[in-house]
């Protein structure tokens, strides 16, 4: 249960007291580290996604890290503004009244677990070397003796992801002035809208692309 005690370190308190933490942040300085958090979390997520896309099979670790740092950071900041806007729009249907600035703070600070998850890359690279940047299924084939260790790392990452969603729901709920459950619904609605927009954009773009190009994408 969250308390009314002052928050000394939001980087740690966000794990156990997300509501109190985000409330103190938006009351004192809602712009605090928002862009930095969005950029670093974007880098963290992009690094993982590149590995799952077999980036290690085509580039070396330094190239992957640099590309993830640049592209992931930019994408993280862009998604910060898009998601905050969608949360404000869909949240208004549920009775939410948070400002865009407060929602950006909620989105960014809810990404703290994702940033902490970067630590998992240390043992992953130490154990696998360059193979750390390959998809999980391929890594298991190359290092069958490390299946147990890799499995536990995946479990830890899954737990962090689930807890990050809980934190996100609580943060959104607090700044929108409704429950964490409504906060989760607010997030779900925003993601559905985002997926529909992306799908619609892809459909429109595909209308102007050659049929052979689209067939090539389908085969891949």
From TrEMBL:
- The Yip1 domain is annotated at 13-200
- Transmembrane segments annotated in the record for this chain: 34-51, 63-87, 108-130, 150-172, 184-209
Compartments where found: Membrane
Regarding the membrane, this protein is recorded as:
Multi-pass membrane protein
GO CC list: membrane
The superkingdom of the source organism is Bacteria
Task: List, alphabetically, the Pfam families matched.
Answer: Yip1
Task: Indicate the principal place this protein occupies in or around the cell.
Answer: membrane
Q: Supply the alphabetized keyword list.
A: Membrane, Transmembrane, Transmembrane helix
Q: What is the recorded name of this protein?
A: Yip1-like protein
The source organism is: Celerinatantimonas diazotrophica
Lineage, please? Bacteria, Pseudomonadati, Pseudomonadota, Gammaproteobacteria, Celerinatantimonadaceae
């Amino acid at each position: 249960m969250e308390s009314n005690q002052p928050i000394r370190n939001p980087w740690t308190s966000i794990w156990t007291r997300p509501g109190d933490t985000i409330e103190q942040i938006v009351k004192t300085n809602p712009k605090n580290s928002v862009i930095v958090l969005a950029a670093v979390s974007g880098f963290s997520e992009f690094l993982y996604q590149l590995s799952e896309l077999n980036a290690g099979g085509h580039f070396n670790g330094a190239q992957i890290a640099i590309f993830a740092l640049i592209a992931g950071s930019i994408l993280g900041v862009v998604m910060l503004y898009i998601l905050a806007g969608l949360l404000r729009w869909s949240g208004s249907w549920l009775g939410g009244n948070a400002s865009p600035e407060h929602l950006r703070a909620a989105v960014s600070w809810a990404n703290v677990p994702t940033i902490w998850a970067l630590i998992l890359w240390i043992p992953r690279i130490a154990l696998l070397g360059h193979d750390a940047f390959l998809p999980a299924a391929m890594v298991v084939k190359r290092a069958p003796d490390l299946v147990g260790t890799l499995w536990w790392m995946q479990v830890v990452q899954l737990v962090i992801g689930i807890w990050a969603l809980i934190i996100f729901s609580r943060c959104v709920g607090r700044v929108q002035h409704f429950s964490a459950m409504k906060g989760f619904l607010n997030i779900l609605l925003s993601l559905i809208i985002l997926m529909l927009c992306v799908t619609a954009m892809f459909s429109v773009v595909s209308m102007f692309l050659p049929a052979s190009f689209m067939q090539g994408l389908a085969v891949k």
